[in-house]
Every structure is written in structure tokens, then in C-alpha cells.
Amino acid sequence: MVKQEETQNNCVYNIYIASDLAFDICSGQGAVGVVARNIEGKFMVTGYKRIRVRSIQEAELLGVEGALKLAVMKGFGKIHLEGDCQIVMKALKKKDQHLDLSWQDATIFFNILAFCLHF
């Protein structure tokens, strides 16, 4: 079954890219997984990275950053980014730079905004 192409502001997304993570708050260790699918839902590329973080918010930000890095490396054009951290996803949609972030998290967030310029 072929999905209808999603549009937002007259933009057609060809690639859907999602990140998720597993994280142990006690040790600070975890992993980020990324998957990219085409409009028909077929896998294009996957990846993962082990991480060491101080907070769940930092882990979520690294997940989004990893997804965007993969999209840039693979030369994807217009992407639809999927994630389960509403705070991060809403901030990205609005390009909201006024989140209550530690300086470490703010650095990752600004890196993410820079990656978004590729799309």
C-alpha cells in the first residue's frame, strides 16, 4: 500500500526519519537508534550510536541530532523528522531558542538548528 505524500507548507517529504533511544539514568549510558523510510515505508538506512549523557533531555537531543546527521550524510532532501520528545519536537518546529536548557543541551540544540538548514 502506497501512502499519500504528506505536505506541509507546500513541501513534499520523500524521507521519514525517526530516532529513539534507550537510556539508564543511573549509569548515564544508553544508545540512540535512527531509521529512515521512504514514502512507501521501505527502509532506506538505519544506524545507532552508544551515548553517555547526564539527562533524558540530553539523550533526546542527541537522538534528534543523530537523525539529522544521518540525513545529511546520506544526502536526503526534504525530510519529515519523527521523535517522541514533545518538548524538543515543538521547539524545533518553532525554532524556539528559549528552552530551559543547560549549556550542554543548548549547544546540542543549536547544532540541531544548524543541521536543519540543510533541509
Automatic annotation (TrEMBL):
It holds the Pfam family RVT_3. One of its GO terms (molecular function) is RNA-DNA hybrid ribonuclease activity. CDD domains: RNase_H_like (cd06222). InterPro entries: RNase_H-like, RNase_H-like_dom_plant, RNaseH-like_sf, RNaseH_domain, RNaseH_sf. Transmembrane segments: none annotated. SUPFAM superfamilies: Ribonuclease H-like. Residues 26-98 form the RNase H type-1 domain. Gene3D superfamilies: Ribonuclease H-like superfamily/Ribonuclease H (3.30.420.10). PANTHER family: OS05G0353850 PROTEIN (PTHR47723), POLYNUCLEOTIDYL TRANSFERASE, RIBONUCLEASE H-LIKE SUPERFAMILY PROTEIN (PTHR47723:SF19). This is RNase H type-1 domain-containing protein. The lineage of its organism: Eukaryota, Viridiplantae, Streptophyta, Embryophyta, Tracheophyta.
